[in-house]
Amino acid sequence: MMHLLYDMLPVAEDEFRLLRLFPATNLEDPISIGLFTQGILDCSLSYDAISYHWGDPQNRHSIIANGLNLSVTDSLLTALRYLRDTATDKILWVDGICINQQNISERNHQVMNMGKIFSNASCVRIWLGEAEDGVQDAIKIVSNLEMCLNKDQEIVKAILTNKAASNGITGLLQRPYWKRMWVFQEIVLSKRAVVHCGIFQASWPCFRALDKVSGDQRLWAQIQVKEPWVLELRRALFGIAQFCMDRDDGERIDNVLHPTRSLKATDPRDKLYALLGVCKLPRDFNFAADYSQPLVQVYTNFAESLIRMDHDLSILLTAGIWDPRNGPEVGLPSWVPDFRGIQGVDIRYLAASYRSHFNATKGKSPYYSFKVDETSQQNHLQLEGIIFDSVNKFVVIDGGTGSRQKASRLVDPRLPGPYRVQVSQTFQSQSIFRTMIFDDPTLSPEQVPERIDRLALGFAYDLVQEHLQIEDISMDSKAQVDAFLSSFRTANVNEGMETLCQTFWRLLEEDQEELYWFREEFLIRIQQAPRDRTIVKQAILWLWFSDAGYQSFYDLGVHSIN
């Protein structure tokens, strides 16, 4: 029946299908729709587009479309039931119905039209699923944020004074919908968007307001440490940050390619095809949606087109050996990124490539050429370069207590041995630190948040406990702790240790609980970002020792500390 329905309503490349959702007075009434075609450029009808998570493709139900049975997923069936009106028709666009998913040729040209379809929709309806406990309170508090969209402190206050509603927001933002690759295009291109969960709804700008304040650490610092549910909320908000990008920013492929790497797509080719409707690419960018091409060819063609367009090799920083966490081995060339996932990619190095002071070639474009190997038929990227040096030692710092011990040994001047790294008369920890944070001279002290001060003291507390094995630091252990901290001086570290010791002991005498919470905040930080673990320890230590005063930290690695 599906083929018959679409055969009755063929679409040209400049056309698309819409559906008329007929009303019902009861939620459980059968779904009935009328499917019809329209020109994309001359469509005068007002329609809404549904953005939803497909769910289990095997869990399907039948609806009535133009008098015929049409199979849809359980998720879409539920969305249609909740979004239909009780009295009037609704005109909608839904990919699972309006595109014949079995017709590759149609999918190719309709995917290329999706940018226009979502841009022209009167409203994008974001469907999260049916409501659960806590959703009503969550949607209510989010909706109320419309009254204070530009008042950051009031927004945070509203969240922090309602734990139940905030936990409900966390639950909403942890739903599978937010992991979808297509969501990026569907939300960023919308003129207007509304979030629906069961019978409850809130405008998308309210969620964007939450995203905005979530990035301001000054608004959350103390409460986040003492209340784990606040940390969970902020983590959930970080998960929707890419969907809050301005439309103009989304038009640049280098702005969106890597922030969307962690998103999922049922068809891994859609990790790139889903960007075509958002990003503005030049006419000679030789890449279009083609579901007849295998995955390796799609990813290889894209990477080659990007290098040719930018005359830049930064994309190589996200390529390399296959990581099984991104999916099964498919035989990608080593210079082609595996866009299926972000595992194995250290985005810090990619971020560094965009800094203007990293310019060893003085602006000269790299030499490159592409060649197909006659034997393997693989695309080879040929480059010219200079052998600068060789790696003598590689130390992995990942999660867990063992890694914290390993990292702290790197910064302990009293412990020569396999963990120490000597680099031409420069103290080993400083060498490691400067390498890991790219020794960025473009940042200014004004950009250093007060949180660095707290993290520094928390790090010192943790370092003392780690090396001296003192569970309960008190004034009785002052001499032992002072001797340990002062030992850094023997390694030609700058002055400033005096201030560190004074501040440490002042807090221990006057407010030991505050010092304890500083350590907890430090531990939470390194649990949040395991790949940045070494940066945080080294940055805190050397930011501290580089200045004489507790209040004046020079910002080298702050952008890696969120």
From TrEMBL:
InterPro entries: HET, HetReg/Transcr_Mod. It comes from the Eukaryota. Residues 47-186 form the Heterokaryon incompatibility domain. This is Heterokaryon incompatibility domain-containing protein.
